[in-house]
Structure formats: structure tokens, C-alpha cells
Structure prediction request, 395 residues.
Amino acid sequence: MSPVPVPLSNRKLVALDGVRGLAIVAVMQTHIAIQQVSLSPLLRGTFALGWAGVDLFFVLSGFLITGILLDTRQSTNYFRSFYARRVLRIFPLYYGFLAVALLIFPFVVNPDFMPAPSHRWLYVCYLANWQPHAQWHVLGHFWSLCVEEQFYFLWPLVVLLVSPRRLLPLIVVLELLLVGGRSWWLWTHSQVPTEYLTTVTRIDGLLLGAASALLVRQFRMPRSGIRVLPWIALLFLATFVAGYHMLGHNARHAFTQSIGFALLAISFAAFVLYAALSEAEPGWRKTWLHWKPLVIFGKYSYGIYVFHYPIFYFAERLCRRLPYAVHQSIWFAWLLIGAECALSFIVASLSYNFFEKRFLALKDRFEPVYQEAVSTRLSAVDASSSLCATVDRNA
Prediction:
């Protein structure tokens, strides 16, 4: 076999860790807004919009995973390599924490903050986002992990069966069907809580991220186009925020579930494209996404996501034993926020370095394998390609 060139999906983009950092900070802000009622209404309202950080994660995942699948599409062990590497990245932490949550938490967590016993099997099968009656609890944030895992399960087959040239039009059609289908459902049935969580209604970000991965491999974007991307991202984000805040409660949810998710997906897709393509740009355009604290938060974002909400729950429960005047004071709220975020980061970093890395070290055993003729073809493509947008090898 001839040496295989390093595919685009194996090159490191530090800026994408910065994007991850922004996403996890936004998600934590949402849960801070839920917990800290002593914060000002304006601040809580701003923090509450951090739920959109999940959609940023979706776009980034769609971009990274589709990039990997496109770059390994001609490998002889396409499915085995992809699924084995995904399992080693995701399953150890997910199932390790889930075992603790289902075996120990029932003895220390208020039953109102635990999944219903009849629904707990759904977490084992990555189906928790399809619960008929959504409830918020210490595992409530796992719904987004279920959405992503279901996407990982089905999307490799789609990428293999549909040629790259036809995949982009297919994604556009699927997105239009999603927006139209959600709008029709809201018009005829009204919104329901589970519509926020099901895969078929929250896949906008994953699809637009996949489209972004195709765009950077099929087209060459000029520098002027790269510089416009942040403004496109800002325009669609501002449109969503304006619509969200100008409407009443019921209309706000209808707006979000009909076109709001699509607006966020377009905004974040433009932002992820900018982060990837500006990696080769000099100066401040890439510096802020390379800010070390943001990049480190991004590196441990998976663990932070898994651990942070249970940590918030236990910290809040412990602090309720303090005098009411202390517990409800603004200075204590900020002290608690800092302590919870720091503890989430510490636990996630320990988990990554002393537990998850043991499994990540096994990923090299499942590298893509190519036939000699395919390797020669890939070498020619890689040598002629001028794409500067690449994908994080630790997707």
C-alpha cells in the first residue's frame, strides 16, 4: 500500500476549539439563568438565550462529522473506522456518567429532579429526546447528545450512498422540508414541548453544518467572501433575537419552532465557516478564537456539558442550607456561579486526562484504510487542493 496523504479532516484547527468554547459557555449561561433568580431580569434574559449554544454545537458537529465522512468515503473500512472512533470518543464518558446517575443519584437526588423510572431506559438507548412529556432534571441536558448520536448513526450511510455533488442539493431540500413541516404542524396542532427535542425538528444545525463541510471542499471562497461571513452570521442572529424578543410568549415559541431554528443554523454555519477559513488569515480575525481560555474550555466542552448541570444542582442544594439573606444576595450569586463553573471545568479536565484519554489512545487502531489505487488518486487530489478550511481531528 502507498502512503496515504493526511486528509483534511485530520488537520488541527484551533479556532474550532474556540467555537466549542463559546458554545459551552452559552449553554452554561442558560442554566445559570434558570438557577440564579437573584440576578437582574435583563441579565437573566440575556443568559437565557444561551440555549442557542446547543445549536452551535449541532452546526459544529455536522461540519466536523460530515468532513470526516467525505474524506474517508473511499476507505475500505469506512463504517468500521467511523463508528469505532465515535464509540471511543463518546461512549466511555456518556455511559460511565449514566451508570453513576442511574445507580447512585436516586439515593441523593430529589425524585422530582430525576427521570421517571419508566423513561430511564431511553437514556441507555440514546432515545431520551423522544420522551412524550419532557421534564427538566439532572439528566435533562442529555437530549442533545441523543440527537447527535442518532445523526451519527444514520448520516454515514447517506454520505456513502449519495454522491458529494448531489448531497448538497439533498441537504437544501431536507432543510426546506423541515421548516415547512414544522410550520404546518404548528399551524394545525400548536407547539408541544417535545418539538424542541426530537431529532427531526432539531436537525437544522447538523444539516447546515454538513452543507458547510461540502462547501469548503467543492468551492474556493475568496478572501472578500470570508470577511463577509461574520456579517452574515450577525445578520441572521440579530433577526432571530429581534423576532424572539418582539413576540409574546406563545408567538415566540411558534416563531422559534417554525423558522427560528433555521435562522440560528444559518447564522452559526456562517460563523463556523468563518472560523475554519480564517485560520489562514493573519491578524485579529483569528486571534480572538485562539484565546487560550476559550480554546481550553472548548477542549473539555464535552465533559463540561455532561457534568455541569448535575454540579449546579448539587451546589444549589448545598447552598440552600445557608441563611436566606446570604443565599439570595447578588454577591453570593456571582460567587456561586464562579465556583460552579470552575468545578465543572476541573471535573471535566480530570475526566478527560485520566479517563477519556485512555480510550482515545485506541482510536489509532481504527484509522481509515485505502486501496493502493485509491491512495494514488487521493494523493493527486490532496496535492491540487487549495482548501484552507479543515476539520478538527478530535471531532
Notes: Confidence is low (pLDDT under 50) at residues 1-5, 378-394. Residues 8-384 form one domain. DSSP finds 18 helices and no strands in the chain.
